[in-house]
Structure formats: C-alpha cells, structure tokens
C-alpha cells in the first residue's frame, strides 16, 4: 500500500512540475516555436492561455501603444487568435495606424525576411528584423503632440497641414 501511495504522489508531483514548466514558457518562446519573431507582442503580458488547437488568449496588464519600426501599433488588454506555423489567423486586439486611421489587424504571416500584417483584403509588409524584441508599451501613441506641432507652426518651422492636426489631436477611437 505504501508503495502505491508513493507512486501516486510521484505521479502527481511530476504532473504538477510538467504543468508548471508549460506555464513558465513566455509568449515570446511560444511565438518562436511557431516560426514567428518574439517581438510581435509586447512584453507586458499578465497571463496567457494556449489551447492544443493553437487558439490563444493573451492578457496584458493594460492597453499598450507601441512604436514598431516607423508605425504606431495599439494592443488592447486582451488579444486572441489562432497561431500555427508561421502565421496567426483570426486575430483580434491589435490595430495599426496608417495615415489618419487605425485599422484592425486580422492576421499575421511570417517568412524569413518579412512580416505581413493583414487588414481584411489589404496587407502591409515590414522587415522581420523590426520584431527581434517585444515592443515597449506607452500610455499613448507616440509622435508629436498638438502643442509641440502648434509651437513649431507659430515659430514658422512647420507649414500648416490640416491632416497633421487631425491625426495628432483626434482620439484614436474617433478615427475608427
């Protein structure tokens, strides 16, 4: 009887240790295991789940704005999608700014040199090198504030451009 109990305890300890090892993997490691660069998601991950079918859910501590290359990207507090080798489909929770507007990214495809962000039928390629490390989160989109821009206009350093005013002063949600 003592032998069976010891065997059972050993199995439970092994199962708990295995579960802890799976849960200690970072999101960046899971991305790399699926042929994706580690910098697709910010490092401020509170928790995540990954199902056997590739369905994932990432919870951030709070919403995140980041500069990715020359582009502004918004990460909602909850990001979901389906990850498989070299791609993420059915993505929800990431938006990219193009011109005046924020667009929801619905898919990501990686190859050896580029990352393709899919926004419905439209796509944009970026160098894979931009995603070597997780982006740094900010509380707002980076770029020139209205006050900074207006000061330059008053000083004669900048030509007045209505699109710049709209882009920097209207809240992101108004432009969706």
TrEMBL record:
<dbReference type="InterPro" id="IPR036758">
    <property type="entry name" value="At5g01610-like"/>
</dbReference>
<feature type="signal peptide">
    <location>
        <begin position="1"/>
        <end position="21"/>
    </location>
</feature>
<protein>
    <submittedName>
        <fullName>Uncharacterized protein</fullName>
    </submittedName>
</protein>
<dbReference type="InterPro" id="IPR007493">
    <property type="entry name" value="DUF538"/>
</dbReference>
<keyword id="KW-0732">Signal</keyword>
<dbReference type="Pfam" id="PF04398">
    <property type="entry name" value="DUF538"/>
</dbReference>
